[in-house]
Amino acid sequence: MSPVPTSLITGFLGTGKTTSIRSLLQHRPAHERWAVFINEYGMVSLDEALLDQPEGDSVQVQELAGGCFCCETADLFKPMLVQFMRRARPHRLLIEPSGAGHPAAVLDMLREGPFFRQHLDLRAVICIADPQDFDNPRTRANPVFHDQLEMADVVVINHVDHRDSDSTARFRQHLEQLDPPKLLIAQTTFGNLNPEWLDLQTTVMRQPEYPEAHSGLLSERAAAPAASPLAILSGSSPPQPVPAVPTPGQPVQLLNSGQGWWACGWLFSPHDWFPRHELLDLLEGVSGVQRLKGVFHCEDDWWSINRVGREATFRRSAWRRDSRLEIICDKPQDWGALHQQLLALGRG
Q1: CB 92, CB 195: distance < 8 Å
Q2: Please, is 75 exposed, middle or buried when counting C-beta atoms within 10 Å of its C-beta (0-12, 13-18, 19+)?
Q3: 242 pLDDT exceeds 50?
């Protein structure tokens, strides 16, 4: 079997990585099987639902939730990816790390070990970026954000239709000054990517400026007591153990925190449904949100919500398995109060 063309799609929280992957899947040749391996920082997997792919073998999706590939879930990354590759037997592999994750450790894992060296053909690293993040002093000073840009071979500036042209120009100028130079700096809207970019090759070994960005977290993890079980949820593999099973009116709530982020996720019974307008009003009103993703059974259809900061979009969803929600914030939240509000909205 020839090595599988493999692309790492990086980018900070909320830049549009999953939307970009969805756009790439639309260009999949009919005779090919593609595989998508996704890392969720939060405990509830949602990107498979947001990809809206039909059932079948043409596109296989595996999600690993509960922390970043580079640290909290590093021990699971290699065996799960190996198992996924053997099961999916793809013609192409797309890997989406968490937006909070550092790319250096992921690239190191993909470049080492006999299985990956033999079976993966690692192509150019593609980073999806938002000019708004570059203008945000806190994000700009984040070592992970910095090295995501530094280690990318290709940087795609997304959301240019919703960003000030001067802001986009400043960001592009910054990218053009990085050394080594990028293979490509492109601009796009709605996360649309040219599928030809997946086959760009590079011989440049880009070095991170902050390789130890997550080392403190790793040390804490090694010294800390064992954490609660990770939620590993995917429709492309046999069901994995989770802390509990949601029943009508009794959702499962899962918490996660670290690296300056606080996350909470919910899994609801497929029999629960929600009044759409009241639900969207509630979710739009949550403060301190860096990232919010959800898919819900509502009175008229199933709907997905995708929120970055205060910008939210809604669309009908083909997902039918259950309702689920994941919120990542930059400050502690009263998750208990929000839990009660969600319970009050739910209908059985």
Answers
A1: no
A2: exposed
A3: no
Phi, psi of 43 (to 5 degrees): -90, -10
For residue 154, give the nearest of 198, 104, 109 by alpha carbon: 198
DSSP letters, 11-51, are -STTSSHHHHHHHHHTT--TT--EEEEEEESSSS--HHHHH
Amino acid at 108: D
Amino acid at 312: A
Amino acid at 101: G
Which CATH architecture describes the domain 4-221? 3-Layer(aba) Sandwich (3.40)
Least confident of 75-89, 211-225, 268-282: 211-225
Q: Fill in the amino acid letter for 33.
A: R
Neighbours of 30 (CB within 10 A): 5
Q: Taking Cα atoms as reference points, which of 102, 177, 92, 168 lies closest to residue 135?
A: 168
E-state strands within the chain: 4-10, 34-40, 59-65, 92-96, 120-122, 126-129, 154-157, 184-187, 252-258, 261-268, 289-297, 302-308, 311-316, 323-329
Domain ranges of the chain: 4-221, 250-345
What's 319's DSSP letter? -
Q: What is the CATH number of domain 250-345?
A: 3.30.1220.10
> How many CA atoms lie within 13 Å of 287's alpha carbon, on the beta-carbon side?
5
Q: Could you tell me the sign of the dihedral formed by the alpha carbons of 277, 278, 283, 287, in that order?
A: positive
Q: What are the CA-CA distances from residue 186 to residues 70, 154, 155, 159 (Å)?
A: 27, 8, 6, 12
Report the 10 Å Cβ neighbour count for 282.
16
**What confidence tens digit (pLDDT) does each residue in 28-62 have?**
999 999 999 998 877 777 766 667 666 667 999 99
